[in-house]
Amino acid sequence: MILDNFQRKIRQEAKLWRDEGIISSSQYQQLADRYQFNNLESAAREESGMMVIAIGGVLLVLGITTFVAANWLQWSRDVKFILIMSLFLSTTIVGFFTWRDPALRKAEGKKPQKSKRQLGEALLFLGALILGANILLMAQVFNISGSSTELFLAWGFGVLVMAYGLSLTSLGILAIVLIQIGYWTGLGDWWFTSNEWNWARLAVRHMPLISWLLFIPLSYFCRSRLIFGLAAFSFASSLQFNLNPLQLLTYSDIAPWVASFAFALPPALLWSYDDLLYPTINYRLFKPLARNLALICFGAVFYILSFRWQWQYPDSGFFPPTTNTNILRTLPIIDVGILSGLAVLQWSNLQRYKNSSPRKEVVFKTALIVGFIVITALVPFWHQAVARIGSLGIFVFNILLATLSWGLIQEGMKLNDRRTFWGGMLLFTLQIISRVLEYDTDLLFRALVFATCGTSLISAGLWFERRQTSSSGSSSKEKR
Q: What does the alpha-carbon distance between residue 195 and residue 378 come to, in Å, rounded to a whole number?
C-alpha cells in the first residue's frame, strides 16, 4: 500500500513535469518504466474487485448465519455436526488454495496476484475464527461441559497448529492472543479454588514454559518480530503472576528463592538469548530485540522495587491475600528449573560467537548486566531468608534504576539513538516524580520538581537534536 501511494505520487509529479516542459516525453517514459506506472491501474482493478468480493463474502456469511440461527433448534445433532464442520473445512480449504496460488504462479514464472494471496490469508483467518465457534457449538451439541478457560485454550492451540503449518503471522498473533485470554481467565481459578486438576489448569500452571517453547519457535516460522515480542511478554507476565513474587516478598518467609528467580530470570534469559543457539538458524534476527526487552524488564523490576511499600509489612488492619494452602505445591517449580537451565546454557554459550579479545565496552556492558542480575536475585533472597532490609532494599533498587537510566542516556548519545536516549531520560524523570509523589512532600516543592523536570526534558531534547543534526552534517561533509 505504501509503495502504491509512492508510485501514484511519482506518476502525478512526472505528468506535471512533462506538461510544464521540465522533462521530455522520453524521460517520462523512462520514469514510467522504472516505477511501473502501467501496473497501477491493474492493481487498482484488483483492489476494487477484492473489495467487492470481501463485501459480498461478509453479506453471504451473514445470510448463512441468519439461516442457521433460524433453523438451529429444528435440526438433529448429526445435521448440526455436519454443517459446522463443513463450514470450517470449506472456508479453510478454499482459503489455503487461494493463498497458495500466487506462490505457485511465481514458481512457474507467471505474475503472482498479491490481492489473491491477501484474500486467501483473510479466508484462513476467518477459518480460524470459525474454529472457535465450532468448538463451542460442538460442546453444546454433544453436552460437553467446560469453562471459558478451556474454550479459549483449545481454540488458541488449534489456531497455533494452523500458524505453524502455514507460517502466517496473523494466525500466530491470533493464537497467542487466544491462549493469553484463556490464561488470564483461568488464573483466578488456579489461585483460589480447590486442587481439581485438568488439562486447562495444567496449561495455566505451566504457561511460562509453554510461552517460551511454543511461541518463540513460531516467530522463526513466521519471521515476525511482533510474535517474538508477544512471546516474551507472555513468558515474563505469566511467570510473575504464577510465582506472585511481590506478595511473597512483602508477606511471607516461604520459599525465599521464588522472588529472586521471578525478578532475575526474564532479563537473564532475554539478554543471553542468541538466535544461533538453534541448530538450523544461521542469522541473528531477534537478538537485538531480545536485549531491548531485557532492558525493559530491568527497568520494570527496578521501578517496582524502588517503592517502599514493596519492602515493608502492611499496617495493622490489613491481611495478606491467600493464594493457596500449600504454596510450594502450586508453584511452577518445573518451569523455573527448565528455564533456569536454559538461561545457564545461553550464558555459557554467550562467549562462543564473540572475538577472542572483546572490546572493553562489551566487557563493561556484560559485567554491568551480570551485576544487575546478581543484585536483583540476591537482595530479595536476603530480605526473606536472612534479615529484613527494607530501607537498604529501597536504596539499592533506586540506585540500580538511576544507573540504568544513565546508561541508556549515555548509550543513546554515543549511538545517536533517539529511542535509547529518550528511554533513559523518561525513566530517570519517572523515578524523580515517583519519589516526590511517594513521600510526604510540600506542594510548593512538588511544583518546583515538576517544573524542573519539564524544563530539563525540553532542554535535553533540543540539545540532543542539535547535536544529532551537527553530527549528520559533519558526516555528510566527510563523504564529499
A: 32
Q: Which amino acid would we find at residue 104?
A: L
From the list 178, 258, 264, the residue with the least C-alpha distance to 215 is 178
Note down pLDDT in tens along the chain; length 480 residues.
444 566 667 777 777 777 777 777 777 777 777 766 666 566 666 666 667 666 776 777 677 777 766 776 777 777 777 888 888 888 889 888 888 877 777 666 666 666 777 788 888 888 888 888 788 877 776 666 768 888 899 999 999 999 999 999 999 999 999 999 999 988 877 666 656 677 888 888 899 999 999 999 999 999 899 999 999 999 999 999 888 887 777 766 567 788 888 999 999 999 999 887 777 777 778 988 999 999 999 999 999 999 988 787 654 434 444 444 444 445 567 888 899 999 988 888 876 655 555 677 777 888 899 999 999 999 998 888 888 887 888 999 999 999 999 999 998 888 888 889 899 999 999 999 988 888 877 888 888 888 988 888 888 888 888 877 776 555 555 555
DSSP string, 64-119: HHHHHHHHGGGS-HHHHHHHHHHHHHHHHHHHHHHHHHHHHHHHTTSPP-HHHHHH
pTM of the model: 0.81
Spatial separation of the C-alpha atoms in residues 441 and 85, rounded to whole Å: 65
CA distance 456 to 181: 41
Alpha-carbon span 416 to 177, nearest angstrom: 35
Which residue in the block uniquely carries the three cell numbers 463485501?
55
Cα 142–144–149 angle (5° rounding)?
Answer: 140
Is residue 340 within 8 A of residue 235, CB to CB? The reply is no
In degrees and rounded to multiples of 5, residue 355 shows phi and psi of: -70, 160
C-alpha cell at 215: 511461541
CA distance 169 to 226: 9
